[in-house]
Amino acid sequence: MRESVQAEVMMSFLVSEELSFRIPVELRYETCDPYAVRLTFHLPGDAPVTWAFGRELMIDGVGRPCGEGDVHIAPVDSEVLGEVLIRLQVGGDQALFRSSTPPLVAFLDRTDKLVPLGQEAALADFDAHLDEALDRILAEEQSAG
User: Fold this and answer.
1) pLDDT confidence of 1, banded at 50, 70, 90?
2) How far is it, in rounded angstroms, from Cα 132 to Cα 137?
3) CA distances (Å), 55 to each of 8, 23, 33, 52, 95, in order?
4) How far is it, in rounded angstroms, from Cα 109 to Cα 75?
5) Which secondary structure element, helix H or strand E, spans residue 54, and what is its range?
6) Angle CA(28)–CA(78)–CA(59) in degrees, nearest 5?
7) Is residue 110 scored above 80 in pLDDT?
């Protein structure tokens, strides 16, 4: 069985209303952490930055505004599911990204084929890998901060 799904999409990093630029973003989903997706943003001149958040949040955010705390995802236009805004926030700092919806949906569809939504807990090795996944998340946060 495959253990991960990856994709790369181009997103617009919206610096201000007047300034934005396109950046590559790696999407990753792993069966050892079946509830989360990871987005690694490759900003020019900076080390890559990885954010992990709930796969279900991304699924819901494609169709309607959702999210609490540090991650908010919403369609740009609720009538047309063509683009999505992803807002990431740490303290008073925030970053806003715009992505085309079809590549996100294609990625999420592939994750669902690997681990169907709602079946995450059924993974036989989930409990065995929980500590490993948490350690990896904490290491990513420490290296980013």
Assistant:
1) low
2) 9
3) 16, 21, 10, 9, 19
4) 18
5) strand 49-54
6) 25
7) yes
Beta bridge partners of 85: 74, 98
* Residue 130 predicted with pLDDT over 80: no
Which residues does 91 contact at the CB level (< 8 Å), separation at least 6?
none
Once rounded to an integer, what is the mean pLDDT over residues 70-95? 89
Edge-first strand listing for the sheet containing 36-41: 49-54, 36-41, 20-30, 4-14, 93-100, 80-90, 71-77
Task: Please tell me the chain's helix, strand, coil percentages from 3-state DSSP, rounded to the nearest 5.
Answer: 30, 40, 25
How do 49-54 and 93-100 pair as beta strands? unpaired
- The first and second tokens of residue 74, run together, are 């919403």
CA-based torsion, 32, 37, 43, 49: positive or negative: negative
Give DSSP secondary structure letters for 3-24.
Answer: -EEEEEEEEEEE-SSS-EEEEE
CB 9 within 8 A of CB 99: yes
User: pTM of the predicted model, to two decimals?
Assistant: 0.80
